[in-house]
Design goal:
With 218 residues, the protein is mostly helical.
């Protein structure tokens, strides 16, 4: 009675995946029937190929015709079910994509809300002041380093003209000392400079002479 008058069913509602599974199962059963009918047609064809024309062959031909009609009907039914299954799979894919899109949108909303909260706590002016202070400290550090690395009593700029004049003066001084005999020719045997030879006493370790010893004794 409930089925006739359309009473509301209290069972669980079928899902799209369960409907696809049921249709695929039906398609598989139709494939089994089609394989059986094809085998029967093959048997009739082999039998008729060995028979001569006559009433017996005509009877087999009528049976084969009915089997062929039945197979075409089942093939048509199978094709319709396969198309339904494909359409439901497409709908299922669209449903999954929509769920993924909605999930992505929800995540983006939450992320946007959290970013607004986080960036709302940041004081841009305070960051700018901190950057300015860091720059001032870096410049101060550079000034300190430059001051600490400064040299004392050392001329910073010496040009080539001054260097040539200094070298020329040293050359003239060396020539003057050589002309006075104060150069390397008057160095002592010990490699002492000539201007110090006369000032340093020479100690000669020699045996004393006999005449000088007598004069010292008298």
């Amino acid at each position: 009675m409930n089925r006739l008058f359309g009473a509301k069913s209290t069972g669980p509602k079928p899902t799209l995946n369960s409907a696809i599974s049921n249709v695929d199962t039906h398609v598989e059963s139709l494939d089994v029937k089609l394989a059986k009918l094809t085998a029967e047609l093959t048997t009739y064809q082999q039998r008729m190929s060995k028979m001569r024309d006559g009433p017996g062959k005509s009877a087999l031909k009528q049976k084969a015709l009915k089997i062929l009609q039945r197979r075409k009907m089942i093939e048509s039914q199978r094709d319709q079910l396969q198309q339904q299954s494909w359409n439901m799979e497409q709908a299922n894919m669209m449903t999954d994509n929509l769920k993924n899109v909605m999930t992505t949108v929800d995540v983006m909303k939450d992320t946007n809300k959290n970013l607004k909260k986080q960036y709302g706590k940041i004081d841009i002016d305070k960051i700018e002041r901190m950057q300015d202070e860091m720059q001032d400290l870096m410049e101060m550090g550079n000034d300190i380093q430059e001051s600490m690395s400064r040299s004392y009593d050392v001329p910073e700029d010496v040009d080539e003209a001054e260097l040539d004049a200094e070298l020329e003066a040293l050359g003239e001084e060396a020539e003057f000392e050589s002309s006075l005999g104060l150069g390397a020719g008057k160095e002592g045997a010990d490699g002492m400079p000539g201007f110090m030879v006369d000032e340093v006493p020479q100690f000669v370790d020699e045996p004393p002479q006999q005449g000088k010893m007598k004069e010292a004794a008298g």
